[in-house]
Amino acid sequence: MKSNDSWNYRVLIVDDQEEIHNDFKEMLASGSTKRATDELAAAFVAQGDKPGLPQFELSHAASGEEACAMVKAAQESNRPFALAYIDVRMPPGTDGVETVRQIRQFEQDIEIVIMTAYSDKTLPEIVNDMELLHKLLYIRKPFSREEIQQITLSLTEKWNVEQELAKHQRELEDSNRQFEASNQRLQAVLDATGDAIGMFNAEGHLQVANQGYEKLLDATESELKQMSPSDLRARIGERLRPPVLTELGRGLLLDRTGDLEEEASESDDSNPRLFYRSTAPVHNMGHIVMYRDVSKEVESEQMKAEILRLRAELGGGG
């Protein structure tokens, strides 16, 4: 994997023996002469990159108490450790397992490697706590230079990949929240128009419906979205029909644009609403359909026309 200059290579060494700290300084030093370790490191970088180790930033603690304080301070300063090597036995005071337990109370992401010179027990036996085994490895002393380099390189880069994935996940969640907020604002605008509005994709599937559209088709937006284009057309056919107009009404509507629809009604005594249906393309989406209730407008125009007709008859008879 190709290293990123912005990645975190901060490593904490926790041991009460000074020679262990000196060994880590030597084993993780970058820019050393080419050895078997450098060939191993080359396997973790892309072809064409210069083989070698990244610049590890080492910090050192001689006790569990000091280690906990350093991890907490690093976290609070937004410069967390990616990896910690922790010795099991550090007399006197907090041992390695208790140090891990305390660190895990406030830092869940750090990679941890338990170190011990005692090889008679397995890691689960040493830890005796399944929760602590999260992101925890185990190595026995003495360890080789190549082993430490491979583990350090693998775990620090694993930590960085996980942090990037978590960042992208947060960005995606933020984007989804912003989209949802924008969709709610769009819904509010569409509802405020007073018209019945539906937005469709290129295949004819409903994408957005306002409250007027739901009321017109007597179904929720979710139910309408689940319908196929043919089923939706059938639904519209059940709810709307070509209007039955008088000659006067048809004459008044000749100059209108769009198609006139009448709300279907089971009762002949009711006064069904009249709608003008208009469509318009939507860039990179499909099209929008709008039904505007013109019942009162048509009724008003018909009344005006009737008054004008009566006036003309009265004037002609005078």
Distance between the termini: 101 Å
Structural class call reads: alpha/beta
Total strand count, please?
11
Task: Round the mean pLDDT to the nearest integer and report it.
Answer: 81
Compressed to H and E, one letter per element, the order equals: EHHEHEHEHEHEEHHHEHEEEH
**Cα-atom Rg, whole angstroms?**
37 Å
User: Globular, elongated, flat, extended or rod-shaped: what is the shape?
Assistant: rod-shaped
Number of helices: 11
Oligomer class? single chain
- Low-confidence region ranges: 32-37, 45-50, 250-257
**Which strands sit side by side, in order, in the main sheet?**
7-6-11-10-9-8
Which range best describes the helical content: under 10%, 10-25%, 25-40%, 40-55%, 55-70% or over 70%? 40-55%
The amount of beta strand, in percent, is 15-25%
Instruction: Report the biggest beta sheet as strand number plus sense, adding barrel if it closes.
Output: 6 strands, antiparallel
